[in-house]
């Protein structure tokens, strides 16, 4: 779900409330939390935003997800 939030922010023009609603009828704070979590992990693992959302998903899904405190 967090990867979906991140993809929504980076590859669509949707607002946080729209992203949250489309991912399980969540609110914007859930989307924001997920986006921050995934971005922190992407930054820590030096994963830059690929041009293709499928490639981004594959990279994030395959990554070792360390514990990241926020």
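Q: What amino acid sequence fits the structure above?
A:
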């Amino acid at each position: 779900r967090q990867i979906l939030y991140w993809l929504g922010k980076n590859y669509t023009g949707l607002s946080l409330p729209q992203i949250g609603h489309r991912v399980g009828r969540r609110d914007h704070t859930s989307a924001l939390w997920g986006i921050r979590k995934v971005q922190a992990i992407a930054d820590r693992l030096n994963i830059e935003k690929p041009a293709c959302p499928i490639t981004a998903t594959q990279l994030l899904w395959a990554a070792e997800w360390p514990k990241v405190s926020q």
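Q: And what stands out in the fold?
A: The mean pLDDT is 91.
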